[in-house]
């Protein structure tokens, strides 16, 4: 394939897209499962962070992380799942990692976690734009 005069090797791109989706999904799946395991603690933390309806907020977060994380991993409704995860991750970053308003001891950790989330959003945006690739349920259902 040639792009802007440069030859690009795309022989492994579909497998790479699948791997990238799974690697992105792992974060959300693990986070969602940890919320299930530590549900009461997460509700207390959501209360401290002044989330409205903390119990419902954590239930919704679990559903989004596990549900959309699973869809992303298998490549089904991939673009929509990635978009929902972007919409979920952006405000979460501002609510739970406010590096600009913490003391010096917490600054580095909060900045790192905020930037990590912004980078994850970048990866998810790439999935929204490029799509799931051929190694996905979306491609299989489209062709099958």
Distance between the termini: 26 Å
Coarse structural class: mainly alpha
How many domains, in number, for the residues? 1
Q: Which band does the percent of strand residues land in?
A: under 5%
User: N-to-C SSE series?
Assistant: EEHHHHHH
**Strands, count:** 2
* Biggest β-sheet description: 2 strands, antiparallel
Main location: membrane
Family: Belongs to the DoxX family.
Transmembrane segments: 20-39, 51-74, 80-102, 114-135
InterPro entries: DoxX (IPR032808), DoxX-like_oxidoreductase (IPR051907)
Written overview of the protein:
- The chain is mostly helical and 144 residues long.
- It has one domain (16-143).
- It is 76% helix and 3% strand.
- It has 6 helices and 2 strands; from the N terminus they run ββαααααα.
- It is globular, with a radius of gyration of 18 Å.
